[in-house]
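Now for a typical sample entry:
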Amino acid sequence: MKWQGRRGSRNIEDRRGMRAAGGGGKAGIGGIGAIIVLIVGAYFGVDVSGLLEDPGAGQGSVQSGQPLSAQEQASGEFVAVVLADTEVIWEEIFRSQLNAEYPAPTLVLFSGTTRSQCGGASAATGPFYCPADRKAYLDTSFFATLQNRLGAQGDFAAAYVVAHEIAHHVQNVQGILPQVQAARANATQAQSNALSVRTELQADCYSGIWARYAQERLGTLERGDLQEAVNAARQIGDDTLQRNAGKTPMPHTFTHGTSEQRAAWFARGYESAKLSDCDTFSARQL
């Protein structure tokens, strides 16, 4: 992916090197790391809920900490460039397909723990989007997890992670996330999980649209980049994560979709480049 030396977004809130203080809480939409933690906890028969609720990351203050390393600075620059690309792309899509203006979100970079209006977050929850404050949250150390533990290598795989969380922002702006939240409030656990799967697969489809525009409008993709993104989508499928944790995949517990579903919906968005073709909620078969 061609990103070095390119313009970065100003909608970055860098909290890395800082630590949060205050009450606890839970993260918002799209926490990939949380899935891994929960699966590992279920496998070993331990309660890992404490790992998903950071006691020092609620409605408190942010305090100064350590300076950033060269690698952390490079990761921040990379995320800023990817975020800037999403802004250019979604501004065009909103104008051409929705006849509307795109309200760009803020992306919060953090290390270890932080706070959001959706509650506290830690590195264990992975990247997530909080509909309440319209911010995406990312601990850049997750990129190492993506490559070393999940087998999703390459800078475009990391860019896909950012694009997926921004896709949740698009869903929120469209009013999709509030509707899903309302429906899940009165649903059974199985129904709630099914709604979550459709939400995540739509975000994957939107990410495919982003990849198509990045290739055709911005010319930032290099050979093999698209395969990196598709592989990343496969590696974080519920069935693959459960299987890698030594468990037999249990479809009724899925919240993000299978590897095949995630890759297929990403490909659908890439091939179509139309928001209307990403309606997972009306699809009879995912």
